[in-house]
Amino acid sequence: MVVVMQPGASTAQVAAVVDRVREAGGEAFVSRGVSRTIIGLIGDVDEFRALNLRAMAGVADVIRVSSPYKLVSRDNQPRRSTVIVGGPDRGVPIGPDTFTLIAGPCAVESAEQTFDAAEMAKAAGATLLRGGAFKPRTSPYAFQGLGRQGLRILADVREATGLPIVTEVLDAHDVPLVASYADMLQVGTRNMHNYALLQAVGKAQLPVLLKRGMQATVEEWLMAAEYIAQRGNLDIVLCERGIRTFETSTRNTLDIAAVPVVQRLSHLPVIVDPSHSGGRRDLVLPLARAAIAVGADGILVDVHPAPEDALVDGPQALVGDDLRQLASAVRRLPPLLGRRPAEHLAPAR
Ligand code: PEP
Ligand code: MN
Fold first, then answer.
1. Is the CB of 276 under 6 A from ligand 1?
2. DSSP 297
3. Percent of residues, the chain, with pLDDT higher than 90
4. What is the pLDDT of residues 68-83, one digit of tens each?
């Protein structure tokens, strides 16, 4: 562990940190730089954590040097990654230079509904189509998705619109099936801790969209990504989709700070899902704006041609003016932050 002192930290403040570490049985080595002093610690990391060094006067930060994740860590690769979805010919980048809009229905319900939703998404500037054929539902009596038939519909809609497909896989055994249709495999919030599934998508030759578990810390989320990377697949995009807190006025609490936190820890692209976090149509635009402003590499948004008839998540689906406003924000705001819209590498048909 390393304790980074604030630029103007006094000698007494540095000595206080050193004393506290030594009293706990650790060793502390002070390095004085031109503008800052850092203190390297040797000893038991868990014991150091209990010392609450971060709260001491003059301390700017306490950094764990050897992170538990390696392949996805920024220590391992300082430059932020760009993941290309849809193959080298018509792929869409997700990364630090661009802003990618992924949009589509929560669930594939029919060919017509999916096609209409894809046209809406495309008109709004989306370059990737989302849509679930396998739906993880809280109730076993709720619509579970069309399964293989849903995948076929997605493939037809890709053919018609040129939009590569992002779709969820629920079970490790289904990875080959879903991968034979999809351009990107989504691992949903409920499955972030499903290590067999993480390993299976790690062996697939497709990019993975890894949603944050609704109760997962950033570290657990990055460890889940590490499982995928460890099996040989580094084409991972992380998606912050809200976490469970005591707050009940939104479906989940969007942890917007997680975006810059994760971008500092990991080289992987990070996008935000303003639909599943807020769970309400009126919150999608403000949360999307927040995502753009905080530096997210893209957003994932639910749209539906007739939200009142949607089988899943109608209350958060965009249509009409709400979608037009989102499209306008996605067109206008990212360039102010030095990002260009994520176009297909070669023009879509
Ligand atoms: C989804 O994107 O369709 C979905 C089910 O999201 P989450 O896993 O974040 O709930
Ligand atoms: Mn949904």
1. yes
2. S
3. 85
4. 898 999 987 899 999 9
90 CB near ligand 1 (under 6 Å): no
Pocket test for ligand 1, best of 135, 139, 146, 211 (most atoms within 8 A of CB): 211
Parse the chain into domains and list their residue ranges.
2-63, 83-341
Distance 223 CA to ligand 1 centre (A): 20
Q: How far is CA 317 from the centre of its chain?
A: 20
- pLDDT tens profile 148-204: 999 999 999 999 999 999 999 999 999 999 999 999 999 999 999 999 999 999 999
Please list the helix, strand and coil fractions of the chain in percent, rounded to the nearest 5, in that order.
40, 20, 40
173 alpha carbon to ligand 1 midpoint, in Å? 19
The per-residue pLDDT for range 191-213, each reduced to its tens digit, is 999 999 999 999 999 999 999 99
Quote the tokens at residue 186: 């989504």
With b for 16 or more beta-carbon neighbours within 10 A and e for fewer, the 196-213 pattern comes to: ebbbbbbebebbbbbbbb
CATH number of 83-341: 3.20.20.70
- CATH H-level, domain 2-63: superfamily: Phospho-2-dehydro-3-deoxyheptonate aldolase; domain 1 (3.30.70.1140)
CA 229 – CA 202 distance, rounded (Å): 6
13 CA distance to ligand 1 middle (Å): 47
2-63 and 83-341, same CATH topology:
no
Residue nearest to atom 3 of ligand 1 (CA): 106
**Three-state secondary-structure class, residue 272:** strand
